[in-house]
Amino acid sequence: MKNVSLNDLEMMCPAILNRVLLPACSHTSPSNLNDSSLLPDHKVWGYGFLAVTVINLAALLGLFLVPFTKKPYFPKVLTYFIGLAIGTLFSNAVLQLIPEALGLDPKDDNYVLNVVGIFGGFYILFFTERVLKMVLKADTEVRACTCAHYSVEQIKLFAGLIQWFTSTAAGTQSFPSPNACVLLTCRWLKGDGMSNIKTVAWMITVSDAVHNFIDGLAIGASFTLSLLTGFSTSIAIFCEEFPHELGDFVMLLNSGMSVGQAACFNLLSAMCCYLGLALGILLGSSFAPNAIFAIAGGMFLYISLADMFPEMNRIMATHAKGYRGRVVFFLIQNAGLLTGFSVILLITLFAGDISLG
Predict the structure, then answer these.
(1) Helix extents (H) in the chain
(2) Exposure letters 330-344 (e unless 16+ CB within 10 A, then b)
(3) Whether the Cβ atoms of residue 96 and residue 236 lie closer than 8 Å to each other
(4) What is the Cα–Cα distance from 89 to 74, expressed in whole angstroms?
(5) Which residues of 185-212 are buried (b: 16+ CB within 10 A; e: fewer)?
(6) How would residue 19 be classed by pLDDT, with cut points 50, 70 and 90?
(7) What is d(CA 113, CA 95) in angstroms, rounded to the nearest whole number?
(8) Maximum distance among all alpha carbons in the chain?
(9) How many Cα neighbours within 13 Å face the side chain of 123?
């Protein structure tokens, strides 16, 4: 073994110190291999279009679920989905959208536990108020009718639509020709006459179109940030769209629209989500979409607390009969709220450890 001279040691020391004190090359550092969370442009558009398409299917669910609104178990199912929507919208706003707008990172800034405290404060008050109302029997027994009142013509048209869908799926009836489609569309849009439709129907359609546009804006901006952020925002919006679109569909029918008119205008308003998606992707790709996240976060909080939370309580007050019934609805509300919050919380906590491709 060759002895190391004093001159050799003087030459080796700077290299050793440089290796010990300075970090390794960024091109080979393992910590930088996982930083490429941004999706390529074609995947952003692809995933965004897929998410919006799945969400827009909720706009057509009202057409197939109207017969089930008369079932005794339907209010319980709807209560769970409303609770799920509240949990996902609230937690998505406070765990992801608002922190993103403020430039916070869940791994570096350690804000998740504090945000869990925000949800905890909200949930403690909800739980305490509901228990006190049940114990003190302070619930107002609201028995307002929430069922849709349909005319004979609407029931016949709806029955014909179901029969056509069934026969088409069974292969016993072919799809109508283009001319028949045009005639059927004209008949749907004509209905009992546009002049007989109440003004509230057009207000619902326009406000729903704006709402869907903002949803698409949030989805597009989220996918430009990361795949998991896009999926978590899409999950929150999908959970909200199911009860929201079903309620809009029933309200449009009660406002004088036929089944075909309600389905058509509901679908047209849902198409605005694609416009918002395109604008969200374009804006999110050109600059930091903090403003979009801030606006979407505020809207999610408003929808969950000001719109859907009172609706969930109204359904309970209307359909819960007796102490046992109120307890059952209360447990269903808790299940929906906690499920929605847990899903978004897990996505936030383990976003850096999950790889979706």
Answers:
(1) 6-21, 41-56, 58-65, 74-92, 98-101, 112-136, 152-170, 178-190, 199-225, 227-254, 259-286, 290-302, 309-319, 322-349
(2) bebbbebbbebbebb
(3) no
(4) 22
(5) eeebeebeeeeebeeebeebbeebbebb
(6) low
(7) 10
(8) 105
(9) 21
pTM for the full predicted model: 0.64
Q: What is the DSSP string of 184-225?
A: HHHHHHHTT-GGGS-HHHHHHHHHHHHHHHHHHHHHHHHHHH
- Give per-residue pLDDT as tens, 100-133: 888 887 777 788 888 888 899 999 999 998 888 8
What's the CA angle centered on 308, arms 305 and 314, to 5 degrees? 110
State both tokens at 84: 């799920």
Structure tokens at 270: 């849902």
Q: pLDDT tens digits, residue range 244-260?
A: 777 677 677 767 777 77
Q: How far apart are the first and last CA of the chain?
A: 51
The number of C-alpha atoms within 13 Å of 342 and in the hemisphere containing its C-beta is: 8
CA distances from 98 to 198, 230, 343 (A): 38, 14, 17
| Vertex 146: Cα angle to 143 and 147 (nearest 5) | 125
Tokens of 49: 């279009």
Within 13 Å and on the Cβ side, how many CA atoms surround 20?
6
**C-alpha atoms less than 13 angstroms from C-alpha of 282 in its C-beta half-sphere:** 6
Q: Report pLDDT digits (tens) over 202-237.
A: 777 787 888 888 889 889 888 888 888 888 888 888
Pull the structure tokens for residue 124: 């403690």
Q: Per the structure block, which two tokens stand in for 138?
A: 């302070």
